[in-house]
Design a protein that fits this description.
The structure is a homodimer of 353-residue chains. Chain A is of the alpha/beta class and 353 residues long. Helix content of chain A is 48%, strand content 14%. In chain A, the strands form 3 sheets. Chain A has a 6-stranded parallel beta sheet, sandwiched between helices. At the A-B interface, helix 5, helix 6, strand 2, helix 7 and helix 11 of A face helix 5, helix 6, strand 2, helix 7 and helix 11 of B. Chain B binds a DNA duplex (16 and 16 nucleotides) through helix 3 and helix 5. Chains A, B: Keywords: DNA-binding, Repressor, Transcription, Transcription regulation.
Chain lengths: 353, 353
DNA sequence: CTGAAAGCGCTTACAG
DNA sequence: CTGAAAGCGCTTACAG
């Protein structure tokens, strides 16, 4: 039995729909209906077909199916940086959603390079993917993105907005998140607060900075331009930025970090300066990575649910496919998670002591 | 001009090879030869064809091409855990290599689940990918893997070995790496050394443990079973494992960690215990992640070049495709990177003091 | 619910 | 180097 199966399988070419039809004793069309899960085929027939498929080791040929039907089950997740742990979480959330909808998610990494982004997307077009999720590379051309959406399939931007592009974006409420964390620090009595990390050419940086500035302005606190220090979003960037800012102004008592990873870098730099976060200086992050509650002290940060981002992004893809109408952008809610990395200061601290 | 282009593009169906042939004034066959980069077409003709392609906004249909030629430019990277930063580095290295070879790398995340692995690979088969790189999920069936390699396209395992599977594996010399780091600790005078982190059902865990035990045995040091504490490979796992091991035996003076991430968790736990790595206790990791030199103290660890893994894995894929012969497995070299997380102890420390 | 026929857009011999 | 023809393995109307 096992022997005969093996023989049949390895004998000659791969099985096709025709072979399956023969073995099942039905027509090609019927096999196709079963393969596509079409309603209205007798249960008994379905069973016969599936039996034949197993027997022959038949493998569905999606190249042929896609050529004829012009449809594809592939959805591309075009990721700007696979080494970014928050993005990894978003990808995982997206994958879960997409599979439930019957899509095959494939991720393509562009490493923050517009050139790679252009090349990879061109290849994906040739493969006729059903839709795109994309965290656009810095300096992505708005027209390029709009054309992708027009001429091809649904496109949803994640995490970053490309100004002028007619494409829905799903991203955290960056402004609100930073506003909340900054207000929290102000409430603890901090008056000289620095903002470190992030690359100025990306939309989320601008939004987070605005949230920070808004909170400061509302409290009547001035922000010196030199207290804002952009940097790479890697750990190393946080370390460098923190040192720059504290070298210039040791009187700073609180640090707002562009992301948790930047905050981790700040932790390192502080420790090398003999300063303890949560005691000598306050630090807040953004993202609430899994690791952040394991830092010591545990990092106070802004939580953005990767699950929510994945879900809202998928909803938009579906809406686009079904109604053929371009969905609205969406802001995902944020939440301040208070842990142990912030101390009180000044009158506030004395008052509490 | 811009106007006429637009009109042409949006008028009706997508351009095909036939349209390109008409505009270029050549035959379908010639267009195909140009598309496939076939040698032996006049430069002038190539230019005419490319001009027509641009003019029409022609998009190559890989479903049709794949159906006819049975070839594909897709190579799948089946990743067990996208949240693992070391794996992210390996993926990035692999992508670089694959693109130079003209492949389109797509990554598929299986989240350490055999079920997802089976499902995703089944889908990839339907898409007729040209080859597979795979970091097998725990409890992967050796026969399943062998069959994948037999019946389909080249398969190269990364990082983990599946015992009994007839598939080449490219992974670090785990045994040597741990042997080196343990010897180093022994050289610093440590006698009671714990090994923490890692999941026992995966090959790299066994190999790293063996390297550790070998060094201990050679030095005539006994290892209590309770000084070996497996755990998840996440940061949280390292934290828990460290606490378990030190709760049982506070006299332990050095910790060998399964990975750098586990070591990060150990750092957290130590700090909460009021212990400083590199002063009160020695810690070594494995992987040499980018972050490890930024920890404070900077982590002593075993470096494995992700670039080398990517390169050797690609070589094997190519060899398989070209010679139709299954390549040998390969061990990638390792290197001990001494930084500041290890202290001397006992006679050794006193001698130096 | 089933069958025979056409066709998706390429590539592949093969003849010129 | 080019052209006419066949065919890859499906899905899609359409007739029964």
């Amino acid at each position: 039995m096992a022997e005969s199966k093996k023989t049949r399988r390895s004998s000659g070419r791969k099985a096709t729909v025709i072979d399956v039809a023969k073995v099942a004793g039905v027509s090609k069309s019927t096999v196709s209906l079963v393969l596509r899960g079409n309603a209205g085929v007798k249960a008994e027939t379905i069973e016969k077909v599936n039996q034949a498929i197993r027997e022959l080791g038949y493998i569905y040929n999606r190249d042929a199916a896609g050529l004829r039907s012009r449809e594809s089950n592939l959805v591309a997740i075009v990721a700007n940086d696979l080494a970014n742990p928050y993005l990894a979480q978003v990808i995982i959330a997206l994958e879960g959603q997409l599979e439930r909808l019957g899509f095959m998610p494939i991720v393509v990494n562009i490493n923050e390079s517009v050139t790679r982004q252009t090349d990879m997307v061109a290849s994906l077009k040739e493969h006729n993917v059903a839709g795109y999720f994309i965290t656009p590379a810095p300096d992505t051309d708005a027209n390029w993105l709009t054309e992708l959406a027009n001429s091809q399939h649904p496109v949803v931007c994640l995490m970053r907005d490309v100004e002028g592009a007619l494409v829905p974006t799903v991203m955290p409420d960056n402004r609100l998140g930073m506003y909340l964390s900054t207000r929290y620090l102000i409430g603890l009595g901090h008056e000289r607060i620095a903002f470190i990390g992030g690359i100025a050419s990306i939309s989320d940086y601008q939004e987070r900075k605005e949230g920070f500035l808004q909170a400061m302005n509302e409290a009547g606190l001035v922000v010196k331009p030199s207290d804002i220090e952009p940097s790479s979003t890697k750990r190393q960037g946080g370390k460098i930025a923190l040192n720059r800012v504290l070298d210039r102004a040791p009187e700073i008592t609180a640090i707002v970090c562009f992301t948790d990873v930047v905050a981790y870098g700040a932790y390192t730099a502080l420790s090398e300066r003999g300063l303890t976060p949560g005691k000598d200086i306050a630090v807040v992050g953004f993202d609430d990575l899994e690791d952040s509650r394991l830092m010591s002290p545990a990092l106070t940060t802004v939580r953005v649910s990767a699950e929510d981002i994945g879900q809202m992004a998928c909803e938009r893809l579906q809406q686009w496919r079904e109604n053929l109408t371009v969905p609205e952008s969406a802001l995902v809610g944020v939440e301040l998670v208070v842990r142990s990395s912030c101390c009180s200061v000044g009158k506030k601290a004395r008052g509490l002591a």
